[in-house]
Amino acid sequence: MNLFEYIGLVAVITIAIRAVKAISIECYRKKAIRNWAHEQRQIDRKKTQNREEWRWY
């Protein structure tokens, strides 16, 4: 195995690791956005319920 093969192998491995990291970060980001949207819907629902309750007073 000469120097150029070694450098090429290291480059391929580095690119593969970066790709896996980017994919996992993107999945985590999507999940976080989905959870945030769910929490916002729950908060809005709670606010609406509170408004309905206060309307009777």
List keywords for this structure.
57 residues; 93% helix; single chain; rod-shaped; 1 helix; mainly alpha
What does this protein structure show overall?
By secondary structure, the protein is mostly helical. 93% of the residues lie in helices and 0% in strands. The protein is built from one helix and no strands. The longest helix is centred in the middle third of the chain and has 53 residues, at 3-55.
Task: Give me the secondary-structure topology.
Elements: H1 3-55
Show unreliable segments. Answer: none
Rg (C-alpha, Å)? 25 Å
Fraction of helical residues: over 70%
DSSP strand tally: 0
User: Helices and strands, in N-to-C order?
Assistant: H
Task: Report the average pLDDT across residues.
Answer: 90
Class based on secondary structure composition and strand pairing: mainly alpha
Q: Which of globular, elongated, flat, extended, rod-shaped describes the shape?
A: rod-shaped
Outline the biggest β-sheet.
Answer: none
| Subunit arrangement of the protein | single chain
Strand portion, in percent? Answer: under 5%
State the helix count.
1
The end-to-end span amounts to 83 Å
